[in-house]
Amino acid sequence: MLASYSLPVTRDETVKPLLTLDQTYIIFDIDRKDDASEVIRISKAPRVSKIAFRFQTNAPTRYIVQPSSGILTDCNPLPVKIILYGNRYNPNHLLLLQAVEVQGSEDRRNVWQSLKMESRSVYTIRFQLGTTVLGISQILNFDDTESRKVQQGILRVLRLSRKVGAPKVRELESLLEMLKGDEEILKNNVDQTMKIKSIIKAQLEQRKKTSADLTTRLADIERECDALNRKIGEDQAELQKIYDNFRLPAPATK
């Protein structure tokens, strides 16, 4: 289990990235019979000699992370399994990944207890948690309505504009920057949707495999039940035969 988090989420954008992840979206398939889980991969950022990492949450009895902390000394991806215990998801759950550069003789046991920790830069990543149902809903609700609104607004401004020369150039440059910002938002939305789609597709394949395994197991159990029923019938017939052979004759009536 994880300990409840104690360090604040860093807001300092100057903190250099210490590690990379293959995903920050964790989507749990809470309809499965066993505990839902996802595997992510974390890697040490280049040009950093050694880092310590740890996962923290505000729901330590709900999340199991294996491993929950450690030291990264190379850039090879480290698989980390995140388990939602009991499949009890709550939108208020937080899951953080924190990392610091290891100094001197620090190790995974004492690096987070250092007296200098408060003055050190802690690189923090907050995961976006959800469930398969919420992920599907997010994909279905995605569209580029906001992008179309911005484009329509720009066309309206261009039609009404009376500026010429340098003021016109500045106006067009401003509109171009607005379009770039809108394009970046749309691109991020598309990327997010594709990532969620990929995760849900993998979960669907897992469900298909589980369904096939359960169907095979059910057929095996039915065959075993049929065999047991036949054996029980045979045993009952044999016992009845033995009983009939050794049954005492009824006493004669006077």
Automatic annotation (TrEMBL):
Keywords: Coiled coil, Cytoplasm, Cytoskeleton. Residues 169-238 form a coiled coil. InterPro entries: Ig-like_fold, MSP_dom, PapD-like_sf. Transmembrane segments: none annotated. SUPFAM superfamilies: PapD-like. Residues 12-130 form the MSP domain. Central component in molecular interactions underlying sperm crawling. Forms an extensive filament system that extends from sperm villipoda, along the leading edge of the pseudopod. This is Major sperm protein. It comes from Cylicocyclus nassatus (Nematode worm).
